[in-house]
Amino acid sequence: MSDFYQGFTQSAIGKQVTRLLGLPTPATLERYAEGAPLVDGTVAVGGRGRLAESLVGILDTLGIAATDETGADTGGEARFKGLVFDATGLTSSADLVALRDFFTPLLRRLDPCPRVVVLGTPPEQVADGERVAQRALEGFTRSLGKEIGRGGTVQLVYVADGAEGAVQSTLAFLLSPKSAYVSGQVIRIGAHGATDAEPVDDWLRPLEGKVALVTGASRGIGEQIARVLHRDGATVVGVDVPQAASELQGVMKGLDGDHLVLDITAKDAPQRLAHHLKTEHGGVDVVVHNAGITRDKKLANMAEDRWESVIAVNLTAPERITRELLDQGVIRPNGRVVGVASIAGIAGNVGQTNYAASKAGVIGLVDSLADELTDGITVNAVAPGFIITQMTAAVPFATREVGQRLNAMAQGGLPVDVAETIAWYANPASTAVNGNVVRVCGQMMLGA
Ligand SMILES: NC(=O)c1ccc[n+]([C@@H]2O[C@H](COP(=O)([O-])OP(=O)(O)OC[C@H]3O[C@@H](n4cnc5c(N)ncnc54)[C@H](O)[C@@H]3O)[C@@H](O)[C@H]2O)c1
Prior knowledge:
Elements: H1 4-9, H2 12-21, E1 42-47, H3 52-61, E2 65-67, E3 80-86, H4 97-106, E4 110-120, H5 128-148, E5 153-159, H6 168-175, E6 185-189, E7 211-215, H7 220-231, E8 235-240, H8 245-254, E9 258-261, H9 269-281, E10 284-289, H10 304-327, E11 331-340, H11 344-347, H12 353-370, E12 378-384, H13 390-393, H14 397-405, H15 415-426, E13 437-440
The structure holds nicotinamide-adenine-dinucleotide (NAD).
């Protein structure tokens, strides 16, 4: 399940061939190592608006070294691991030049795998010229994401009026190597349940004392989600089908967790899960609907069972389970519901009408629940692009090799990249992160 092409570009002959033919050379992405500081370097902060003044202080609470002294005082030579620009004060198209003024001199002073975050105001909250300027930020950040190279990432975070104090967990994620394969995203932080957010004392174990349910936890992305949530302090309850029982048991034993062998499409699965979580754990704080299957065929040849099984596992089961856990009050206040969608649900894919419908439906589930939830409970989804797992190992070699290159990082992601994004949603301080669908796709060229 390794990346054949990336390995080739790092060999002596591969380096020559890629240089001669002008082929893409995927950077080696930095990923988070347990116990390491969130950012290995200094973050430069700039801009003007509602957030600029508090940014250095917020980053300080995360142990991130930050400075707004980027020019003469540093001799114009200091190097930076990250850049954060407050664009909430840009109120007209003429103001947009402030982006050029801040970023252009600094882009040459970035360390490898740099992180860039632009903060804006949701365009729908403002009018006229300000709305134009705030909407323009999307084009800027998405283009810079494609330009930045060297394993860098660029995101736009729209911070709603009143949510200024709720950006901490999002900055912790976006500035750290945890967001290695997330780029070109537009993230929204609302005022939703801002008062329900819990302060995090230990950023190395933010989920201490929490219980997390992960479906499909015996292998692939689900196994990694279980590992990362456990690393962050959670007690993990893993679920998988009877055929995967021994693998599931092995994974969960290694994590001092709990497991339940269960087909999530079974008629009584929601009730069994609710009962188990209530009686064994007194409830649940994080629910991750990861289990998923593909049964690809063009629609002209699609047998009914292929259609039914994919919709049942990927969409109907998460819908029914979420509803039951909410109705029975099993999800505790400040809880988290996380769906696993897919780029296929956004861009569509040949042979995947069933799968893409199920994954777009997961996004619909997020949309429909986001406004309904109370008590600080949030719902969000990840939409993975090409992630190297047993699921993608089944893709034919040539399609797989090409598929992995169709993104700004010219490589596939790893299960841990999806898991880290879910851990950010799960963080007790992420209460204002609600209704988002973040793509974990290395800024794939497909789809919006
Ligand atoms: N790998 C990728 O590139 C990629 C891309 C986009 C989205 N996804 C999504 O990520 C999730 C995980 O994918 P993966 O690549 O790790 O797949 P995988 O096939 O390796 O793992 C899926 C797990 O779900 C379990 N499962 C399937 N049906 C189940 C059921 N009825 N009840 C309980 N468990 C069940 C399987 O036994 C397996 O352990 C899926 O929802 C998938 O659609 C993956």
